[in-house]
Amino acid sequence: MHLSPSKIICVGLNYRDHAEETKGEVPPQPMFFSKFSDTLVPNKSNVLLPRTQRCFDYEGELVIVLGADAYNISEQEADSRIYGYAAGNDLSARDCQFISGQWLIGKSFPGFAPVNFDVVPAADWSPYEEKYICTYVNGELKQNGSTGNMIFSPREIVAAASKYFALKAGDIIFTGTPAGVQLGKPKGERVWLTAGDTVTVEIEGLPQLVTYLK
């Protein structure tokens, strides 16, 4: 399917192990931020890394695709608004992400929201059964997590987001990343992404996402 969302919403610190590795506190409610529309690119895209930054990181994530409008809905209503799920990568430039209290500038370079547009309908895939989520860089396993480690479930995320945003059919929500990002490693051990790297995100039961960095 072609994705053309009116909103790209992301959730930060939504895996317990990721919150621990980055020394972040487990949030009492979903932490939302956004990306711009030109960050969205499909599977097997070439993404140009901006030459003004150097600390590029991967974040393999489960992505929710909305199938119906949702505004101020309950958790019980949320499942009926979800069309399906896909693999995504919340690419991040860590050297500018924390310049301010908002993460936007480290998250919204062009192409920094790769998503596999081959969305699997919610009727055929359930996030409530534990599924592995893995990220590879040049074939080397970097993240090996499980959706069972999520703090807030997809229905909780959609319901919470709908309290603040008028969600539309076609909108997408990145649901957070598990442990294994470079930001979570000691400073002397971080190996940032560079031009020439290939990043692959695999989520059990969903088509994989491959991104080529240039």
Describe the protein's architecture and organization:
Helices cover 11% and strands 30% of the residues. The chain has a single domain, classed as Alpha-Beta Complex (Fumarylacetoacetate hydrolase, domain 2). A six-stranded mixed β-sheet has the order 2-1-13-6-7-10, with helices on one face. A five-stranded mixed β-sheet has the order 4-15-14-11-12, with no helix packed on it. The protein is globular and about 45 Å long. The chain is mostly beta strands and 214 residues long.
Task: Note the topology.
Elements: E1 8-12, H1 16-21, E2 31-35, E3 40-41, E4 45-47, E5 56-57, E6 60-66, H2 75-78, E7 82-89, E8 92-93, H3 94-97, E9 113-114, E10 120-121, E11 132-137, E12 140-146, H4 154-162, E13 172-174, E14 198-203, E15 209-213
Parallel strand pairs: 1-13, 3-9, 4-15
Antiparallel strand pairs: 1-2, 5-8, 6-7, 6-13, 7-10, 11-12, 11-14, 14-15
Number of strand segments: 15
What's the level 1 CATH class?
Alpha Beta
Mean pLDDT over the residues? 94
Count of the domains: 1
Q: Architecture, CATH level 2?
A: Alpha-Beta Complex
Q: Counting H and I runs of at least 4 residues, what is the number of helices?
A: 4
As a whole number of angstroms, the C-alpha radius of gyration is 16 Å
Going by helix content, strand content and strand pairing, the class is mainly beta
Can you tell me the residue ranges where pLDDT is under 50 for at least 5 consecutive residues? none
What oligomeric state do the depicted chains represent? single chain
**Span between termini:** 26 Å
Order of helices and strands: EHEEEEEHEEHEEEEHEEE
Instruction: Tell me the CATH superfamily.
Output: Fumarylacetoacetase-like, C-terminal domain
Spatial arrangement of strands, main beta sheet: 2-1-13-6-7-10
